[in-house]
């Protein structure tokens, strides 16, 4: 006789609870999903088929399908086939969907056709958070992370890669032609000649395809072509490897770590700061927010655009000057005297504001001193030019950038706050996705996937803050 816990016999008749509701406790997260979706105005959010037609076969209500997807993404089940399987065996889903069991094609088509509605549902949840006073003193951290696309590196082409492929195929064609010439000279029949002819025909066909790809690549603005997912791009990841992926931008609230805004891009972080800041301002309903970002976002014109919106930007500047490698004085050694509008060079001479010019679309003021530079003993450490003096360029709005740097210097913990705020959501979402890529292709569909991930993350975050029953109570109170 063992002392282990014993199970019931598989053939024993059991009296199950009369109501399915008895299987789902009051603190089960599915109750929050149910209340949240039932309170949404799905037709105004952009969901299709909210009002069913009176003729034809009835379809599933969008609320039912949205509940299914939110539950799936909360529980790391994103595949439509796996979701279909769960509806047949998962008691929580039986309760949530009222025992409905849509097939995988219906499930997949809903996600594909309701991207706008799903993205607006994600925004609606942030609106709920705002009404619950989750965003009081708004400081957001902005960052981007690379998410693998449904496109292998082999199916991504640049002009150089297309050129290399064509060269290899042309070399193979040349080798096979030489083999055929040798076979023709030989008096004995060669059994491999037919195989060589077949391979040669395939190579010529492949050469034509590659030449078409080369022409298409040259026509692309960024000189890059992805064959499987045309919107994805080859980019460097954190470990300096190169992957065909998307760059997902997020703005995360530093107080409650909620993702207030997100966007899918296929470029680098530079140039995205002002756009994501605007999305965050719209989401929290305020302009006077503080934005934290890393040096990958540093762009003076972009920072100025953020400041013009009423936000405060804190973005460190990376030193991209090559002066140190050349043995020259770095620009940072030239000190600006704002009161006298002059630069003081490392040798102690004053560089005056001589004229204004436009470079790279920016209005720049030129500072130099011909006489002092000509007779300076440190000239060889300052410039490689034998005739012209060292010129210092100053943007006309540089004072605002300097004020931002002063705020950064006064807040040395900014970098730590940014990192611990914005990188955790990315890590969590990638863990939920697993060692895989997006399930869908193109900007529209990939944005839908990310919106579902963000909505699930924010829901789980709010449950952690308020508790399941507390959040359910808040939702009921909001919906009246």
Automatic annotation (TrEMBL):
<dbReference type="InterPro" id="IPR008490">
    <property type="entry name" value="Transposase_InsH_N"/>
</dbReference>
<dbReference type="InterPro" id="IPR047629">
    <property type="entry name" value="IS1182_transpos"/>
</dbReference>
<dbReference type="Pfam" id="PF01609">
    <property type="entry name" value="DDE_Tnp_1"/>
</dbReference>
<dbReference type="Pfam" id="PF05598">
    <property type="entry name" value="DUF772"/>
</dbReference>
<feature type="domain" description="Transposase IS4-like">
    <location>
        <begin position="240"/>
        <end position="459"/>
    </location>
</feature>
<protein>
    <submittedName>
        <fullName>IS1182-like element ISPa22 family transposase</fullName>
    </submittedName>
</protein>
<feature type="domain" description="Transposase InsH N-terminal">
    <location>
        <begin position="19"/>
        <end position="112"/>
    </location>
</feature>
<dbReference type="InterPro" id="IPR002559">
    <property type="entry name" value="Transposase_11"/>
</dbReference>
């Amino acid at each position: 006789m063992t002392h282990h816990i014993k199970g019931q016999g598989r053939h024993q008749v059991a009296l199950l609870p009369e109501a399915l509701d008895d299987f789902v406790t009051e603190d089960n997260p599915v109750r929050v999903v149910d209340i949240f979706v039932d309170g949404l105005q799905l037709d105004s959010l952009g969901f299709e088929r909210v009002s069913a037609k009176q003729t034809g076969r009835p379809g599933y209500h969008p609320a039912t399908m949205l509940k299914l997807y939110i539950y799936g993404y909360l529980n790391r089940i994103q595949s439509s086939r796996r979701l279909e399987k769960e509806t047949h065996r998962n008691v929580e889903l039986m309760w949530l969907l009222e025992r409905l069991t849509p097939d995988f094609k219906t499930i997949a088509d809903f996600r594909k056709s309701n991207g706008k509605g799903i993205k607006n549902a994600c925004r609606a949840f942030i609106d709920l958070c705002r009404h619950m006073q989750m965003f009081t003193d708004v400081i957001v951290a902005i960052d981007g992370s690379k998410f693998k696309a449904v496109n292998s590196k082999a199916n991504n082409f640049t002009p150089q890669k297309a050129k290399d492929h064509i060269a290899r195929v042309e070399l193979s064609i040349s080798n096979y032609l030489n083999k055929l010439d040798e076979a023709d000279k030989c008096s004995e029949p060669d059994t491999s000649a037919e195989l060589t002819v077949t391979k040669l025909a395939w190579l010529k066909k492949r050469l034509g395809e590659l030449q078409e790809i080369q022409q298409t690549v040259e026509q692309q603005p960024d000189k890059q072509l992805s064959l499987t997912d045309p919107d994805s791009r080859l980019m460097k990841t954190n470990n300096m490897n190169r992957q065909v992926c998307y760059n997902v931008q997020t703005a995360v609230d530093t107080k409650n770590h909620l993702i207030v805004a997100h966007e899918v891009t296929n470029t680098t972080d530079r140039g995205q700061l002002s756009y994501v800041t605007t999305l965050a301002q719209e989401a929290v309903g305020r302009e006077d927010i503080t934005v934290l970002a890393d040096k990958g976002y540093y762009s003076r014109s972009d920072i100025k655009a953020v400041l013009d919106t009423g936000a405060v930007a804190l973005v460190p500047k990376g030193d991209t000057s090559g002066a140190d490698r050349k043995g020259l004085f770095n620009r940072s050694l030239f000190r600006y005297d704002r009161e006298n509008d002059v630069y003081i060079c490392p040798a102690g001479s004053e560089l005056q504001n001589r004229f204004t010019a436009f470079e790279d679309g920016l209005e720049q003021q030129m500072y130099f001193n011909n006489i002092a530079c000509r007779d300076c003993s440190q000239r060889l450490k300052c410039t490689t030019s034998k005739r012209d003096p060292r010129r210092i360029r100053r943007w006309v709005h540089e004072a605002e950038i300097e004020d931002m740097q002063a705020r950064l210097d006064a807040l040395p913990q900014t970098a730590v706050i940014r990192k611990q705020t914005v990188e955790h959501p990315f890590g969590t979402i990638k863990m939920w996705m697993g060692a895989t890529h997006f399930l869908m292709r193109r900007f529209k569909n990939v944005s839908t996937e990310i919106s579902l991930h963000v909505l699930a993350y924010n829901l789980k975050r709010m449950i952690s803050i308020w508790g399941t029953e507390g959040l359910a109570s808040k939702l009921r109170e909001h919906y009246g």
